[in-house]
Amino acid sequence: MASMLVKDNPILLPLNVEKTVYDGFITVQVRELSLYYLAIQGCLFSLLQRLHQSTDLVGFILELKTVLEVCLKKLPKCYSIPPPQYYSQLILEMETLGWDKLLFIDTQFQILRMKAEDSSGRQHILTINLKSKHPAEAPECSADLPVPLLLKWTPQSSLNQLYSQFLLVIEALTEFWDVLDEIDAKTWILEPEKPNLSDTMRRIAIANNVSIKVEVDPQHPKMLPECCLLGAEHVVTPLRNNLNANMHLWNPDSGVLQNLQDVLEIEFPSPATHEKSMFSVECGICYSYRFEAAIPDQVCNDPRCSQPFHQVCLYEWLRVLPASRQSFNTVFGECPYCSKPITVKTAAQKS
Ligand SMILES: [Zn+2]
Ligand SMILES: [Zn+2]
């Protein structure tokens, strides 16, 4: 039973040890000493073995000292262990917060991953990096969010308060994620390939080589998002005209997806009606769909050609041809397929 606990959730061990072996008597010493132990990976089983073999407390403490010394010698010199109060404080704070929220804790007891759920049942992870001077020094927190994570901390704060603040943050973003979840479920998303909770952009397929890039505002998710139509001019122009003419009809009370279809006067192809392969046409130069995460977003404007290209591929192709000319950041040349005029902007500089 005890060894199972060590394996599954090492932090439960010292509490268990106290209760079963030296109940009440060595609360302070064993809790802190064994927490030191727990910070040192690989010593758990020998500690447990000795604990079971010891017949009295003095014998156990001596054994403990020996094992501790051996383990400390194995540690790199730069490794500094926080003071004992750090661990007792952490245990107390975790007891208040609830161990069931803890997904992961590293062997140094400094990085914690807590799970949280918003009111739509979406799972979130809050990563907390505790400083050695915890709680005097604020921990570093991070999560997969579309906005910067700003949590308040004072030396009197606790993990419980931190967690409550995080729940408020994710609750305020629930509407934003609901909007994107509906888009993800009912349309074909070309980009990002696997959206994260922090992604605000979606490139939605409209037809073969035609798509719309929408940028949803996390603070105002139901308002008209920033839109950019991608595709051949003869297809994109009428859509852009519809968007401009109908923009005023946008109704924040109905869904973003429905609004987009209404203002563009289209129906988005959905997984229920179309196969995704219809929209993932490969680049006419490198013959692949994805090239370093990019998908073809340049299209020949000739309606009979409409060949898609990656921006990088088309730029590199046109740049070296003597018939092409460059003006500022735009290269003018001929489509490699139909020889009609085609332009491409310089590939964005990679940082
Ligand atoms: Zn390409
Ligand atoms: Zn062409």
Structural features, described:
The chain is built from 11 helices and 13 strands. It starts with a helix and ends in a 6-residue tail after the last strand. A hairpin with an 8-residue loop joins strand 9 and strand 10. It has 4 domains: 2-81, no CATH class; 97-172, Ubiquitin Conjugating Enzyme (Roll); 177-278, Ubiquitin Conjugating Enzyme; 281-351, Zinc/RING finger domain, C3HC4 (zinc finger) (Herpes Virus-1). Mean pLDDT is 85; it is low at 1-32. The chain is elongated and about 90 Å long. It has 351 residues and is an alpha+beta fold. The strands form 4 sheets. Strands 1-2-3-4 form a 4-stranded antiparallel beta sheet. The structure holds zinc ion (2 copies). The site of one zinc ion has 8 residues, from loops.
Write the layout of secondary structure elements.
Blueprint (H helix, E strand, L loop, with lengths): L1 H7 L4 H8 L6 H12 L5 H10 L3 H18 L9 H14 L4 E4 L5 E7 L5 E7 L10 E3 L16 H14 L1 H13 L2 E3 L9 E7 L2 E6 L10 E5 L2 H14 L9 H9 L33 E2 L8 E2 L1 H9 L5 E3 L2 E5 L6 E5 L6
Helix pairs in contact: 3-6, 4-5
The protein binds zinc ion (2 copies).
The site of one zinc ion has 8 residues, from loops.
* Fraction of helical residues: 25-40%
CATH class of the largest domain: Alpha Beta
Q: Mind telling me which CATH architecture of the largest domain this is?
A: Roll
Average pLDDT reading: 85
* 3D shape: elongated
Number of helices: 11
Instruction: Give the beta-strand count.
Output: 13
| SSE order | HHHHHHEEEEHHEEEEHHEEHEEE
Bound molecules: zinc ion
User: How much strand content do the residues show?
Assistant: 15-25%
| Class from helix and strand fractions | alpha+beta
Number of domains: 4
CATH superfamily of the largest domain: RWD domain-like
Between the first and last Cα atoms, what is the distance in angstroms?
Answer: 53 Å
What kind of sheet is the major sheet? 4 strands, antiparallel
Report low-confidence residues grouped into runs of 5 or more.
Answer: 1-32
Rg over C-alpha atoms, rounded to the nearest angstrom: 30 Å
Q: What spatial order of strands do you see in the largest sheet? A: 1-2-3-4
Domain FANCL C-terminal: 280-347
Catalytic activity: S-ubiquitinyl-[E2 ubiquitin-conjugating enzyme]-L-cysteine + [acceptor protein]-L-lysine = [E2 ubiquitin-conjugating enzyme]-L-cysteine + N(6)-ubiquitinyl-[acceptor protein]-L-lysine
GO molecular function, one term: zinc ion binding
Pathway: Protein modification; protein ubiquitination
